[in-house]
Structures are given as C-alpha cells and as structure tokens.
Input
Amino acid sequence: MSAIIISCALTGSVHTPSMSPYLPVTPEETGTQGVAAALSGAAILHVHARDPVSGKPSADPRLYEQATAPMREHCDAVINITTGGSALMSLDERLAGALHLRPEMCSLNLGSMNFGLFGAADRKKTWQHDWELPFLEGSRDMIFRNTFQDIESVLQQLGEGHGSRFEFECYDVGHLYTLAHFVERGMVKPPFFIQFVFGILGGIGADIDNLVHMRRIADKLFGDDYLFSVLAAGRHQIPMATAAATMGGHVRVGLEDNLYLQRGRLARSNAELVSKIRSIVESLGRTVASPDEVRTMLSLKGREQAGPLPS
Output
C-alpha cells in the first residue's frame, strides 16, 4: 500500500464554541493548532475561518490569511482552503478566502443537500453566543447549495484561474456521478482526491457497507485515476478512518468533524486526533505521507505558487 495521507480539518462551520472549549475560534488558535497537527503527522490542513469574537463562521479573507500565516511559516503542510464555508453564505462569500490565498488545494462539495445539524441542539442547555441555537435549529429548513453552475464556477475560478486542485467532498453516491460528469467534460484532470463523507444527516450513513459501495462505484467510474479518503462525523470518525486505512485509502480527522478523542472525553486539540489516527494506521503497517509526498501523489502546484495575493 502507498503512504497514507492524513488530513486534519481544524475548525469547520458545523460545531459551535459552546460544544467544546478546545474548538479553535481565533486565527491565532487555528494557526497554532494547525502547526501542531502538522507536526503530529497531518500532511494536509483543511482551513475554515471564524469571527474571533463570536466564533461564528466567517468569509473574511483577512482571517484566512492570519490563520494560515503560522502554518506557512512553521510547517510544510499542504494548506487546503474551504469553498464550502457555511451553508448560510453566498458562493461569492464562500470563495473569498480561497481566491485571496490561491492555495494548493481547496475543498469542493459535489451536490446540494439537506444538512441537518439540529440534533446537536438537544445536547446542550446553555450557549455562549446568541447565534448558536438558532443556527443549529435553522438547519431543519436549510439546503446546502452546490449546483452544477456553482461547481463549474469553483473549477473555473480556482482550478483554471489559480491552479488549485481539489478535495472532492462526496456526501452520497450521486456525488460521484457528478464528479464523473465534470471529468467527461474535461474540467477535472486526474489524479482525483475524493473524500467520502459519512454520517451527516442528509447524506450517506456511516457504515462499512456504504464505504464498500462508494469505493466500488468510484472504481467503476475512475479506475486507477483516483485516491480516496474517508471523513466520518462524530463518533464514527476513528472507526471509519481505520476501515479506510485497511482498504488502502486515506483519512481525515479533526475538530471540524468530531470533538471527542474517545467516548465522554473531549479532544483537547486537533493534534490529539491526528496522533490517535497516526498510531492506529502505523499499527496497521501504513507509513504516513509527508507533505512533499502528497504534493507528488496529488500533482499539486507547490507551496511556492500559493499564498496571499499582493495587497
């Protein structure tokens, strides 16, 4: 088996500050945790931004620049900027950080979907900020929009425009066929880095049968032209990542997707989650890929070609 890519999603837009005191909120916290995660074995750092006061997801390019500055200075990890942002943002807002930073990689969601977060509202009684509960409850009537036109725009602006490559986030089997559509049109070139996403209410469930099925369909559609990674929400994160590692796939962990190191114990940092999955995959005989190995595996443009646009 090839070296395994560990991605770490640092903060995201799903969890809210009241859920964990260890969730990075300020750019400084995100940057510090990103460096520590990289030193623990994460070759790819997936970055969202939050308002440093309220902790609310933010589209401000300056916050992305501040969060990634320590990562660029103190580690060699591949920086992967979200284009998903938050389901409450417009596409222009979602792209603002990535267009400013011109990263080696971006995430790209491959379909519109229901994205239910409201179950988390039942697990808390007090909230630090007045936006948190309405945000979660509002997901009962929220669609995470990713139309064909939206996807085309991301591919054109970031792929063609800046040479960024993509972590294709597939929340269901149909999303694989959407990727195949863009491959057939020549808008995406191999190798494809496909993130199978499990356990989001509105997407495919987190069980091994679904992982096997997603891989079977990806094999049929893309042959040897793709690498797959697995992201699973909450308590499913480590078991599903372990299964992916045994199948020759790659893994994503981090506080964006899961707040707990084990049942009843909050992870105190992203680095704790990276260290845990690293120990597991190495015990399975997999070696952990370095950032430069990832750049070769995914045909990335190189860190020297990325970075903020001149002011």
In short: The radius of gyration is 18 Å. The mean pLDDT is 97. The chain is about 40% helix and 15% strand.
